């Protein structure tokens, strides 16, 4: 029974009214709770308390792990270059951590237990201190267990030291997330038992693969009747769907009608952060064009669009300038279109934008399954198993047959036999929308890339999985079986090529370094910390290994990471012993490179082997 004393105690703990608005931090409140969309730097010292809270989501009460008692957590906002102190108090009975997503901090401040620090023990405090050399829209979240799914995330904004290249009259932070009343460990256990548990259709990609194994790929592939009958199910696009998720904007379900207000003619900046555990979103504002001005925190040359797909952990800043005084719907639709969350952008509080109907679920194609033969003759299928065709390593290639020598076995149920460049595609399901949809190939950094050297070598990493057994990995090896880190050498410039052998879209995140996405031969490549890799896609980024240390590198779908789709990148110092690099638990101590291991930029040696994997 809820006595008054209990109520007071719970309220004092900060959580009880969390999602009702009263106790939400100002940035996350609706216009009717006083949010006018104008915020200032909030300081350079922050106290963050991690604890249990009850939250109300869509009128139902649930248990969350929160920061300072709210879901999402407080807005951390400071100025570029300033030294900040963040005291993180762990009131839980389990370890916790905070990772500052996208921030270039010294690696021991990066907050990944087992990689960059030991984690924050129960009932203890850890103090993070750093000064960052960047500005923009970022976020922070737990890197411990599945806490992120329980509400342990919040926005982080850094104002530029000088003038902001983006001018706006007011701004809102939109934190997109997915909430479940089921305990995440139970969700994960159910996925392990039956990957299609949250799917209600019959025929799946797994069925197709089983047919292919039993009957051979040829008959299965040419069986047009069965192919045509195979309607892909949402589970093949998202593991976890709206059947268990409530999608949120700033902690609010659609029924809350979270509202942002504007005056006609104003430039309104929206800082959109995908803080989901598992949900890639399509974001749009029907009737209102958006001008993208930043991606993953860093400014890009303005590009106007009507919709974009935002992978888990990505951020986009857009400017909108509504001139008509009417409500607009802010729509975040899950990639599988099993659900959406809608908020309102309106000239005054109290209006409700009309939510669009959910669109038809997208259907996976041959292209998504790595079987797009349209540009190849079937004769080349014979070469698909470790054939000898040249990748044209440094060239932009449109289609490439599979020839990578990574581990097969129970953890890998598919290889993309035909890898395709999809950098000029807007993302699954957005190919045929009747309006503009953003493509990575449209993005250009506002400023020239800081390092324009040609990459001295290339490594290729495959995104692999077994959908039926819910196994996820890089190169067929899950984290617990990896024998050593991926080695980068300090100050080297290298190209990392990712090949998605699965039929799912994976947002891949590298800690500690921004990378330049290879969208074209330009010195204004978009600089990102997370790249969303489409099914059967082959894409590359160039990166300068300028921060020595051990850095997590993983799929940002939480349950994929939890299943092992993660490795460690060790940036080794050029001069052995000259830095603070220390071996870490769970991985072999990194061996200092011998002279011949250090690639020189004078003699480019495209190298498709993975150092440290053999
Ligand atoms: Cu993934």
TrEMBL record:
GO CC annotations on file: periplasmic space
Domain Plastocyanin-like, residue spans: 52-160, 241-333, 455-573
Listed Basic and acidic residues bias regions: 605-614
An MF annotation (GO) of this entry: oxidoreductase activity
Cross-referenced InterPro entries: Cu-oxidase-like_N, Cu-oxidase_2nd, Cu-oxidase_C, Cu-oxidase_fam, Cu-R_CopA, Cu_oxidase_CS, Cu_oxidase_Cu_BS, Cupredoxin
Record's signal peptide: 1-33
Keywords: Copper, Metal-binding, Oxidoreductase, Signal
UniProt key word Signal: yes
Keyword Oxidoreductase found: yes
Segments for region (Disordered): 579-614
Cited PROSITE patterns: MULTICOPPER_OXIDASE1 (PS00079), MULTICOPPER_OXIDASE2 (PS00080), TAT (PS51318)
Protein name, as recorded: CopA family copper resistance protein
Organism: Hyphomonas hirschiana VP5
